[in-house]
Amino acid sequence: MAAADAAGDLGRADFDVIVVGAGIMGSCAAHAAASRGARTLLLERFDLLHDLGSSHGHSRTIRDAYPKARYPPMVRLARRLWGDAQADAGYRVLTPSPHLAMGPRSNAALLAAVGNGGGAEVDLAGRWGGGVFRVPDGWVTAVSELGGGVLDATKAVAMFQALAVKKGAVVRDNKEVVGIVKEEGGAGVRVTTSDGEEFHGAKCIVTVGAWTSKLVGSVAGLELPIQPLHMLTLYWKIRPGHEHELTAAAGFPTFSSYGDPHVYSTPSLELPGLIKINYDGGPPCDPNSRDWVSGGGDAADRVARWIEEFMPGHVVTDGGPVVRQSCMYSMTPDKDFVIDFLGGEFGQDVVLGAGFSGHGFKMGPAVGMILAELAIDGEARTAAEAGVELRHFKINQFKGNPMGNSKDD
Ligand SMILES: Cc1cc2nc3c(=O)[nH]c(=O)nc-3n(C[C@H](O)[C@H](O)[C@H](O)COP(=O)(O)OP(=O)(O)OC[C@H]3O[C@@H](n4cnc5c(N)ncnc54)[C@H](O)[C@@H]3O)c2cc1C
Fold first, then answer.
1. Predicted local distance difference test score (pLDDT) of residue 13
2. Which of 78, 297, 301, 328 is placed for a possible disulfide with 366 were both Cys, Cβ 3.0 to 4.6 Å?
3. Ligand 1 in contact with 26 (CB < 6 A)?
């Protein structure tokens, strides 16, 4: 029976790979698996492209400037795969831009990020009209000219879902997975949904974002310290006369300002006349019962003070941000991803991709490729060839570590 017909039945359906969760990671994993010729099913508990997880909205930064040297090889692999996917789709989701990393010279994470491919130190007096940023003496200001940019998040998720379907994947939304069990006799797994449907997969990939601890806890009895945080995306009005200056089209960068508060931004792009400038942090939350506002006033006040001090005269802070959008980070204690076999009774039949700690979007295509290869081949050859070391992302990585609360990775 063809996979599409099988998925239409209310009875059991057979797939080579079942992916649970259709955010950026699951959508990329489904695309990678289907591209390998695997009969692939992607299950999502809400409507496709919903706003309730971590992959919605219109801007995510892609940058090489990483304090941990383990990430730039993954960024480079992802960048190649973003390019391949755009070429296949025939449209773009990545708008190139420079990236500016700045902060006090005493900030070790900043120095490490610059050292790991974060660009060259420049005098900001010669950049972006010379007057946008006012940074104190002794600050490091480093710009990477190439390879950075802004990813249109929801459009990118939609692109990978469309490409997955083009390669033969079946995509089903409003399917909440409530059970994953080993088939009797050990041949693969049975995946069940809250409305009573049942699917059989030789392998299963779990990419459920902020719901990871809940689902993995209930299906495997494993306690993972992956803590959802409630984040607010803040858009601010640009002062009249400066609108063009701060656009991606004018070459304005994505930027990350290290220290306290850690503030980051993408250039004016998706909402003309507005610029996204965010505080990098937020309070713990339950993904099923968010209050949708926590972190709001506090984060907005901190960002407003930062803007007044470091970008004076360019952005309106009176009255606060004009748009606020809710989102979630899924933090691990050391802010490293979890990409591993679930193990236990599932052995290598279930692969987990989780804990992307507020910095995973840019890596989506690389993570999807890794998850698909782990599921299909038992090893991630493409990543190994690209110099990505998966030993940093094992499930047991965070034993004994305290929880993290920001993506100062
Ligand atoms: C405000 C904000 C700014 C960010 N900025 C950046 C950035 O600049 N650069 C960057 O690289 N990253 C950034 N990130 C991080 C990045 O967006 C996330 O790491 C990434 O989106 C995580 O994707 P995911 O697929 O793991 O999770 P999600 O997108 O949450 O996807 C998980 C999916 O699983 C579904 N699901 C859950 N439970 C079940 C179930 N039982 N059955 C079926 N489906 C289920 C959910 O509904 C959801 O659709 C940012 C995140 C936020 C919130």
1. 62
2. 78
3. yes
Q: What CATH number is given for 97-145+227-331 in this structure?
A: 3.30.9.10
Give yes or no for residue 55 CB within 6 A of ligand 1. Answer: yes
Structure tokens given for 293: 């506002």
Q: Which fold has domain 3-55+154-225+334-398?
A: FAD/NAD(P)-binding domain (3.50.50)
* Contact 141 CB / ligand 1 (< 6 Å): no
- For residue 386, the one-letter residue type is A
Amino acid present at 81: L
CB atoms within 10 A of CB 318: 6
Contact, 363 vs 75, CB < 8 A?
Answer: yes
Residues of the chain with pLDDT under 70: 1-13, 397-409
Q: Where are the domains of the chain?
A: 3-55+154-225+334-398, 97-145+227-331
Q: At 143, is the secondary structure helix, strand, or coil? A: strand
CA of 129 to the centre of ligand 1 (A): 36
Which amino acid appears at position 349 of this protein? D
CA 396 to chain centre: 21
Going 170 to 173 to 174 to 177, the CA torsion angle's sign is positive
End-to-end CA distance of the chain: 46
- In angstroms, the CA 329 to CA 359 distance is 9
How far is the centre of ligand 1, averaged over its atoms, from the C-alpha of 209 (Å)? 5
The finding on whether 60 has its CB within 6 A of some atom of ligand 1 is yes
Look at ligand 1, atom 7, and give the residue with the nearest C-alpha: 60
Ligand 1 site, residue 206, Cβ cutoff 6 A: no
Residue with tokens 């500016």: 100
In this prediction, what percent of the chain has a pLDDT beyond 70?
94
Whole-Å CA distances, 167 to 39, 40, 152, 199, 242 = 9, 9, 22, 20, 45
pLDDT on residue 6: 43
**Partners of residue 140 on adjacent β-strands:** 103
